[in-house]
Design a protein that fits this description.
Strand order of the largest sheet: 5-2-7-8-11
Structural class: alpha+beta
Shape: elongated
Radius of gyration: 21 Å
Number of helices: 7
Length: 324
């Protein structure tokens, strides 16, 4: 499955060493969900097992008694149910029981291949941080679109407004690819043809009357991607696979978890959030889900909701520590 070649504007994002570390080890599996607590040994270090945690070959899962985790392997898309107490080593194609009983690991065939890939945008987002503060102008345009972009926003400020579009990977202070002005709170794109499946930046600012330059403060650079026909077809295929999973068991969060990750692969951030909220409704205390939502909201520039999710993560971590 071909994924978006996403290149995020450097002016808004910074990569951390965690991103570089993840890129050095090919991912072979990921955690679909977790009941209870457990540890993953990755590159010799113990980290908590979380929903959506990516796993590499030679990683180890350690679950205490009463804990249960579900993994999906990318090689053939089969699922594995791990029940503690057990230790399981991750290989390229399946889990290898180190300790536990034969029933500690159970393999289940799956038809969810359209929903999984070893490298996804959400994994890369784990090392990204939005830099900026809330502004008076809020984007209302979706992040993944089809066809010619139409920029829309909300603000109490009066027009006219100036919209600027920046090329993929534009550095801070770089000139725009295109700019346009309008008296209302929307503007269709009118510049050169945009590459599909690439992430562009854009901003909107108020303009002082009669001036040639923006007079008001620019909003934080927003982002969007124009989906290609192939990406649209892959999205439709993935949605069908998710529907089959959810129809089979509406109370199983795995379908929503995979949809969250899948949508993020195609920069469909609003849809990813919707899937994440549906998964949280079924597993409200799932730390991994709330961390994923915090990253998504941060990528979208919604600082209020980012802070709310980070607050929930903090509270859940305190509860988890209290149970240890």
């Amino acid at each position: 499955m071909r994924k978006l070649r996403l290149l995020l504007p450097c002016v808004a994002l910074a990569l951390t060493c965690a991103l570089a570390a993840s890129a050095s080890s090919p991912r072979v599996a990921k955690v679909l969900d977790l009941v209870g607590q457990g540890d993953a040994i990755q590159r010799g270090q113990a980290v908590p097992v979380r929903t959506l945690l990516r796993l590499s070959e030679a990683d180890e899962i350690r679950l205490p008694g009463g804990a249960k985790a579900r993994l999906v392997y990318f090689s053939d898309q089969h699922w594995e149910v791990l029940r503690g107490p057990c230790r399981v080593r991750v290989t390229a194609s399946q889990g290898q029981l180190i300790s536990g009983t034969p029933g500690s690991i159970r393999r289940v065939p799956s038809s969810s291949d359209a929903l999984n890939a070893p490298v996804g945008n959400l994994d890369r987002m784990g090392g990204m941080v939005i830099r900026g503060t809330p502004q008076a102008v809020r984007s209302t345009m979706k992040h993944a679109i089809v066809g010619v972009p139409r920029f829309t926003w909300e603000t109490a400020q009066p027009g006219p407004f100036e919209v600027k579009v920046f090329p993929p990977g534009a550095a801070a202070g770089a000139g725009p690819l295109w700019s346009g002005r309008t008296e209302v709170r929307e503007l269709p794109y009118g510049g050169p043809t945009l590459q599909e499946d690439r992430v562009y930046g854009w901003s909107v600012a108020t303009v002082s009357e009669g001036s040639q330059a923006s007079g008001g403060k620019a909003s934080p650079i927003h982002t969007f991607a124009v989906l290609s026909a192939q990406s649209q077809a892959e999205v439709a295929r993935g949605q069908q696979a998710a529907k089959a999973l959810l129809d089979a068991d509406p109370k199983d969060p795995a379908g929503y978890v995979m949809l969250l990750d899948f949508y993020a692969d195609y920069y469909m951030l609003e849809e990813a959030v919707e899937a994440g909220l549906a998964a949280c409704a079924l597993r409200p205390r799932d730390l991994g889900l709330h961390k994923a939502l915090a990253r998504l909201y941060g990528e979208m520039g919604d600082f209020t909701k980012t802070a709310q999710e980070e607050g929930l993560v903090y509270e859940l971590e305190l509860l988890e520590q209290g149970r240890q």
